[in-house]
Amino acid sequence: MRLIRYLPDGQAFPNGSVLTIGNFDGVHVGHRMVLSALIEQAKSLGLQAVVMCFEPQPIEYFRAEAAPARVSTARDKIEQLSETGVDALYLVRFNDLLANMSAGQFVEMLVQRLNVQLLIVGDDFCFGKNRQGNFEYLKVAGEKYGFSVQRSHSFKIENERVSSTLVRRALENGRLDKVAVYLNRRFSMSGRVMHGHKRGRELGFPTANIRVKNRKTPLKGVFAVTITLESGVVYKGVANVGTRPSIEEATAVLLEAHLFEFSGDLYGQRVVVAFAKKLREEKKFENLEQLTQQILIDSEQAKTYFNQTLTS
């Protein structure tokens, strides 16, 4: 997959493209339905399958700190999209220019820069300043500029429309079983292991400390997790996502993962932490002895969960 961060001055695809546009936050099963249709249509027409996303996401641009937490970071989204088989991803910077672009100017950009021949969009897709453009607008514009438009309908599970909002709500409620269904995989977070205060090592539970890059995290608490190293080796463990109230007064969210049966140096490695089961909420303990006892309990609960999963 080609990753392109700037729109070209001329046409990027002389033979034309099949395009879809959206946030694709989390790349859930509803997104994958759209992407499967995109790839299938592109192959049948002999064109490139292209995805357009924005960074930051438009809701983050307009609402800033009031924007909801992301399901996935930009990096994770890029990796998830690359695994689907699309040919190219335009990760376009959302700025004042795009925010003030009219629906007509936006369509002209798609025609002139991306040579769009077929556009596939979700049933709630809106675009242009003040969200003046929608599916019906695109149908009319397509007749004018010579491209086709297809509507991708909602993907439902148990009569609920699968969306990033639905995934986010399930994460906030600790329903990782539902999240795994919505994503068709376990929810995960990735990042580089950084140096911490080594307090976990002092307590007998060394941790891999990963700074959460998003402004907000969609979940908090203590979890049974798996940790995949750069080598591909997978460890089971327990992880805390939060601000560590028993250790320090902090506002930045940190992901701390304790790997079972691991010894070694992970500093600088990019690891993937997949969340299997929520064990409890994060809380502040009166002293480090209480914290140590709770970590022992958390670890045993995580090990019990994994052992039951293996035997079930």
UniProtKB/TrEMBL annotation:
Signal peptide position in this chain? none
Q: Which CDD domains match?
A: FAD_synthetase_N
**Gene3D superfamilies documented for this protein:** HUPs, Riboflavin kinase-like
Query: What metabolic or biological pathway is this protein involved in?
Result: Cofactor biosynthesis; FMN biosynthesis; FMN from riboflavin (ATP route): step 1/1; Cofactor biosynthesis; FAD biosynthesis; FAD from FMN: step 1/1
Instruction: Please name the InterPro entries in this protein's record.
Output: FAD_synthase, Riboflavin_kinase, Riboflavin_kinase_bac, Riboflavin_kinase_bac/euk, Riboflavin_kinase_dom_sf, Rossmann-like_a/b/a_fold
Q: What does this protein do?
A: Catalyzes the phosphorylation of riboflavin to FMN followed by the adenylation of FMN to FAD.
Q: What is this protein called?
A: Riboflavin biosynthesis protein
